[in-house]
C-alpha cells in the first residue's frame, strides 16, 4: 500500500515539474503551475497547453520606448481573457473527470 502512495507522489511531482516547465516557456508563473500540476496532474497539463504564451512587455523591443497607456490596457485585457480561457479549460477538464469517475463507480 505504501508503494502506491510513493508512486502517486512521484507522478504528481513529475506533472508539477512538467507544467512548471511549460509555464516558464510561455512566460507564465511557474510556481503556481507547479502546484496546479501537482494537485490536478493531467488537467493542469491540458490547461497550460491550451493557454497562449504571455507577451513579454519588458523585452528589448520595448527598452527604447515605454508602452503607452492604451497598450497597457490592451495587454491587461488580453491577460484577463487568457486567464479566463485557462480557468475554463481546467473547469471543463474537471467536470469531464468527475463524469468519467462517476460512470465507473
Identify the notable features of this structure and list them briefly.
105 residues; mainly alpha
Radius of gyration: 17 Å
Strand content: under 5%
> What series of H and E elements makes up the topology?
HHHH
- Percent of residues in helical segments? over 70%
Report the total helices: 4
- Number of E-state strands: 0
Structure class: mainly alpha
Describe this structure in words.
By secondary structure, the chain is an all-alpha fold. The protein contains four helices and no strands. α1 packs antiparallel against α2 (30-40), α1 packs parallel to α3 and α3 packs antiparallel against α4. The two termini are 21 Å apart. 15% of the residues are buried. The model has no long low-confidence stretch (mean pLDDT 80).
Secondary structure elements and pairings:
Layout: H1 2-25, H2 30-40, H3 42-50, H4 69-104
Write a brief structural summary.
This protein has 105 residues and is mainly α. It is built from four helices and no strands.
Amino acid at each position: 500500500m505504501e508503494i502506491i502512495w510513493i508512486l502517486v507522489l512521484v507522478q504528481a511531482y513529475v506533472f508539477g515539474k512538467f507544467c512548471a516547465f511549460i509555464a516558464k516557456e510561455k512566460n507564465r508563473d511557474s510556481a503556481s503551475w507547479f502546484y496546479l500540476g501537482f494537485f490536478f496532474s493531467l488537467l493542469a497539463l491540458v490547461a497550460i497547453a491550451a493557454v497562449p504564451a504571455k507577451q513579454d512587455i519588458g523585452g528589448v523591443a520595448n527598452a527604447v520606448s515605454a508602452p503607452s497607456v492604451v497598450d497597457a490596457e490592451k495587454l491587461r485585457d488580453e491577460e484577463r481573457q487568457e486567464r479566463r480561457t485557462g480557468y475554463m479549460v481546467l473547469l471543463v477538464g474537471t467536470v469531464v473527470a468527475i463524469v468519467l469517475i462517476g460512470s465507473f463507480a
